[in-house]
Fold this protein.
Amino acid sequence: MNVLDFQRMKENNEKISMVTSYDYWSAQILARSNIDCILVGDSAAMVIHGHKTTVPATVDMMIQHIEAVSKGAPSKFIIGDMPFCSYRKGLDATMDTVDKMMKAGSQAIKLEGADDNITIIEHIVKSGIPVMGHIGLTPQSVFALGGFKVQGKNEEAAQKIYQQAFSLQAAGCFAIVLECIPYPLAQKITEDLTIPTIGIGAGPYTSGQVLVFQDLLGLQTEMKPKFLKTYLSGFELIKESLNQFDQEVKTKKFPNIHEHCFQG
Ligand code: KIV
């Protein structure tokens, strides 16, 4: 998949699948899967580093994750997420970060919000770098939004998100993440835009869907938002295997003298 395939897939009515990855190991699994593209999300701050929000994500943190993922999945289209405030420090600082993220192995970058970010998005796009937008619930603004809440619930808020989608398209974004908005709004945006939308908590009518790797595989048990479907009880399965190892060590069943030992 390359950046042009996003548009082609929308035009052909083919759904786009995107999953997050932060490390070499999960990237290797994704590389062998049918998932279309990988987002190295700033959700790494929460999922991997245990923070309560994505605010503590740093450029250095994201670079390390992008490098690991690009080694594990060199053939996949990788989108690197610009962390909190990294695109709000002026053009030079923003472009330094974009430069580092692209050199680390991203083929595109994603940043949250529209409005005041439009000029910077236009500059990044004109520099030959594909940009994915992200509107609706923008987790980096969690403190301004008063929590992780569904956005666009009233007419005025919905209208604002609709306009933001158009300004991101006009600025040159190749796709837009729509996070936690009512599905009729996501449907209208998707139908009216020419570029594709990738939804998370935005219903079935977006051009594609994105989920966090650990969420979709049930590898974390702390959060179960309404929009999440888990495809594996990963946490429980891993815990059971660890307990089995523990039991076999204690009952001297492992290691087996014939299978797991060197004779000398
Ligand atoms: O960081 C992330 O994982 C994201 C997705 C939820 C879209 O931005």
Q: What stands out?
A: The pocket of 3-methyl-2-oxobutanoic acid is lined by residues 20, 39, 41-43, 81, 177, 179, 200, 210, 212 (CB under 6 Å). The domain at 3-232 is CATH 3.20.20.60 (TIM Barrel). The longest strand covers residues 131-136.
